[in-house]
Amino acid sequence: MTSLIGLASLLLIMGIFSHPSSYAATLKATVGPYGPDTCASGYVWREAFEGDHVCVTPEQRAQAKADNIQAQYRVNPQGAYGKASCRTGYVWRESFVGDTVCVTPEQRAQTKADNAEALKRYAP
Fold first, then answer.
1. Residue 117 and residue 40: Cα distance in Å, rounded?
2. Which three-class secondary structure state does DSSP give residue 25?
């Protein structure tokens, strides 16, 4: 089990996951005795996308929801990536490979930090 958790952690850090469902499946395979995807006390599912069970603070879940609601106003359809281009001051969130919701650079950094800590935030 330890080697599986180590491998999953490495894949998270390297950003290997190409789709949210593969990301969720890997995390599901590494949970403890309290059932699939149970967060440790003080953490909740982020829910930035369907099946996103990365455990984050309640404030970060609220931020992901707010970012999703504001997503349509933060794009620049004339940009280099068309509908996926962000307005000045915003970058892709990248909660998984292909997540092009536009957020602040600080929020993207927080998302990457939450992903890196994901396996440590499940209930024992």
1. 12
2. helix
Tokens of 8: 């999953």
Rounded distance, CA 121 to CA 99, Å? 22
Distances (CA, A) of 60 to 33, 48, 115: 25, 10, 12
Scanning 1-124, the segments in alpha helix (DSSP H) are 2-14, 20-28, 58-70, 105-117
Q: Could you give the CA distance from residue 31 to residue 24 in angstroms, rounded to a whole number?
A: 11
Reported as a single tens digit per residue, the pLDDT across 72-120 is 999 999 999 988 999 999 999 999 999 999 999 999 999 999 999 999 9
Question: Residue 53 CB: number of other CB atoms within 10 A?
Answer: 20
Rounded Cα distance, 90 and 22, in Å: 27
Residue 19: both structure tokens together? 């789709």
What's the pTM value of the predicted model, to 2 decimals?
0.72
56 beta partners: 44
Question: What span, in angstroms and rounded, lies between the C-alpha atoms of 58 and 93?
Answer: 18
Position 30, amino acid: T
Tokens at 75, concatenated:
């794009």
